[in-house]
TrEMBL record:
The lineage of its organism: Bacteria, Bacillati, Actinomycetota, Actinomycetes, Micromonosporales. This is ABC transporter ATP-binding protein. Transmembrane segments: none annotated. Keywords: ATP-binding, Nucleotide-binding, Transport. GO terms for cellular component: plasma membrane. InterPro entries: AAA+_ATPase, ABC_AA/LPS_Transport, ABC_transporter-like_ATP-bd, ABC_transporter-like_CS, BCA_ABC_TP_C, P-loop_NTPase. It comes from the Bacteria. GO terms for biological process: D-alanine transmembrane transport; L-alanine transport; L-isoleucine import across plasma membrane; L-valine import across plasma membrane. The keyword Nucleotide-binding applies. GO terms for molecular function: ATP binding; ATP hydrolysis activity; L-isoleucine transmembrane transporter activity; L-phenylalanine transmembrane transporter activity; L-valine transmembrane transporter activity. SMART domains: AAA.
Length: 303
């Protein structure tokens, strides 16, 4: 199935380096001296049987857990020890195994929240500021009170507020347009004003991807994005992942569906019991006796 892959667009330049990472939960060694590099522009699959350490690896990359030892570098900078929002701003976004949207917000608002994680001035904050400023009309009508100094001071304050407001309005408008573009990109633009909880399961999964893309990531980590999908939806997801990569975003994919993984990834890293047991092209990994043994549950030398 490797022939289904699009041409590798990786530049050969490392984007994310997992350097000898070990992560323990008490007595459980979830990651055991794991090493791999993700190259800019590639789609890398991270696979392995249940409990192999895939999600823990995502969690270590995105600041949920700190490695017990070893280091993760992104774009040359150390990730380990940074706060989650800092890592988002560095350019790593993710989706979750279990969908984590804001169910009582509209699809569009969910994407705006993603954009907000990135912006210097908060777009969501701007919406609230709009109400606050609109509630103070007396400051403009009383502008002549207090003589010339008071007038100048009030005019300056009003000017600053109006200037600040217009900047926020412009920023909010740009964010809205971008969010609508992302909803269009993932194919749920018709549902933009619908509450997230009313979207179908497949639409919610796509919405999660749009929200992650709104943070303008260099790297998008997808944790089992095809879980619960029918074959047609999996085919559409495969296309979407390729399109995401074609926009210049590097993709790290955890997925149990082998057809999807083999069809869309450029390279694959295989974990088992927290250790990396194989790495290579989809064809190499598919034919690796250690991988076959890990999946079939038989010793490698007997596979
Ligand atoms: N927060 C935690 N506390 C304790 N143990 C944990 C925690 N998270 C994961 N583990 C353990 O670490 C190991 C790796 O789990 P992880 O969820 O990373 O595997 P996975 O490869 O993502 O599995 P799956 O495919 O089932 O999602 C497992 O033994 C798991 O029980």
């Amino acid at each position: 199935m490797a022939e289904l892959n699009t041409t590798t667009r990786a530049t050969g330049e490392p984007l994310l380096e997992v350097d000898n990472v070990t992560l323990r939960f008490g007595g459980v060694v979830a990651l055991d001296s794991v090493n791999f590099t993700l190259y800019r522009g590639e789609i890398l699959g991270l696979i392995g049987p249940n409990g192999a350490g895939k999600t823990t690896c995502f969690n270590a990359m995105t600041g949920v857990f700190r490695p017990t030892s070893g280091e993760i570098r992104f774009d040359g900078e150390r990730v380990s020890g940074r706060k989650r929002y800092e890592i988002t701003r560095m350019g790593i976004a993710r989706t979750f195994q279990n969908i984590r949207l804001f169910p009582e917000m509209t699809a569009l608002e969910n994407v705006l929240v993603g954009a907000d994680a990135r912006h210097r001035t908060s777009v969501v904050g701007a919406l609230f500021r709009l109400y606050r400023v609109a509630a103070k009309p007396h400051e403009l009508t009383e502008v002549t009170a207090g003589g010339l100094p008071g007038m100048v001071q009030r005019l300056r304050r009003a000017g600053q507020r109006i200037f600040g407001l217009s900047r926020h309005v412009l920023e909010e408008r740009a964010a809205r347009e971008k969010a609508e573009g992302l909803l269009r990109f993932v194919g749920v633009e018709r549902r933009r004003n619908e509450l997230a909880r009313n979207l179908s399961y497949g639409e919610q999964r796509r919405l999660e991807i749009a929200r992650a893309l709104a943070t303008e990531p260099k790297l998008l980590c997808l944790d089992e994005p095809a879980a619960g999908f029918n074959p047609a939806e999996k085919g559409q997801l495969l296309q979407l992942i390729r399109q995401i990569r074609d926009t210049g975003v590097t993709v790290l994919l955890i997925e149990h569906d082998m057809r999807l993984v083999m069809g869309v990834t450029d390279r694959i890293v295989v974990l088992e019991f927290g250790k990396k047991i194989a790495e290579g092209s989809p064809a190499e990994v598919r034919d690796d006796p250690k991988v076959i043994a890990a999946y079939l549950g038989v010793p490698a030398d007997a596979a």
